[in-house]
Amino acid sequence: DAGVTQSPTHLIKTRGQQVTLRCSPKSGHDTVSWYQQALGQGPQFIFQYYEEEERQRGNFPDRFSGHQFPNYSSELNVNALLLGDSALYLCASSPRAVLSTLEQYFGPGTRLTVT
Amino acid sequence: AQRVTQPEKLLSVFKGAPVELKCNYSYSGSPELFWYVQYSRQRLQLLLRHISRESIKGFTADLNKGETSFHLKKPFAQEEDSAMYYCALGVRSGGSNYKLTFGKGTLLTVNP
Predict the structure, then answer these.
(1) CB nearest to B44's CB, from A40, A96, A106
(2) C-beta separation of A18 from A86 below 8 A
(3) Which of A16, A101, B28, B61 is 20 to 30 Å from B5 at the Cα level?
């Protein structure tokens, strides 16, 4: 099992453009969460998907949207990119049935640079 | 709103010395606390969680609800412990929905 995988590894976009990041959860996991990690900061929760629906959202504008597919993989879309969106975007997966713990498994991240 | 504070951005110790990474949290409900670690060029990974009361790689952490703290400790630091450490607070809302709130992290350097 490769664990959580993300693509692409790096991405450079221009201000105003749109970007789509992809995530495949760890085998056996059905819940996907996305985090933004700016330089020198801890990860910040963007949103969480389960059963193809957004279940919880952090303090991020509507420019950030997502999707989950029937195979549990997920996409993060960011519209009208701003310079401040430059960050490492992390995907984390977890098995929803295991409610006794909130442990999440993280992917390697996608480094987004907005110029 | 929940918050996690890691007061030390950098912490440097010598090999064999005790190490303590501080973490304080703010949350009115029942918290679930974690320590995540990120070694150089590796992904973020779980080190330990308070509900397990386990020791991983010699590290322990005790949840102190009175002081709202979850400090990470190791009696004898090793060079391979050098990494970025993040304290995280797990919060449930609306059934089984949940999220993690992270601190800003502490970079631990263990010198030979």
Answers:
(1) A106
(2) no
(3) A101
